[in-house]
Amino acid sequence: MKKTFLASALALSLSFGSACLSFAQPPSPQPNQQQQQFKEHKFQEVKEKRLHIIHERIERLEQRKACIEQAQDFQALRNCR
To answer: Along the 81 residues of the chain, how does pLDDT read in single tens digits?
Structure first.
């Protein structure tokens, strides 16, 4: 009886141990030079696109500001949208 209990306990501990090991994630591999260059290029593209959007927004705001500064009445002010 003790032998079967010990054998089943050993089997259970081995299966539990292997299950725990299967959840462990292997370390991520270091990106190679080509992947790093691609990420840098992609970063530059995204950065340029966001800066372009900001510059366009600034231009629109400056145009609205100039229009509002030149407005002489409420009708002219409403036209500055």
So the answer is: 555 555 666 565 656 555 555 566 666 656 688 888 888 899 999 999 999 999 999 999 999 999 999 999 999 999 998
- Indicate yes or no: pTM above 0.70: no
d(CA 68, CA 74): 10
Which has the closest alpha carbon to 67: 54, 80, 81?
80
The whole-angstrom separation of Cα 21 and Cα 25 is 9
Over the range 40-71, which residues count as b (16 or more CB within 10 Å of their CB) and which as e?
Answer: eeeeeeeeeeeeeeeeeeeeeeeeeeeeeeee
CB 80 within 8 A of CB 68: yes
For the chain, the structural domain boundaries read: 36-81
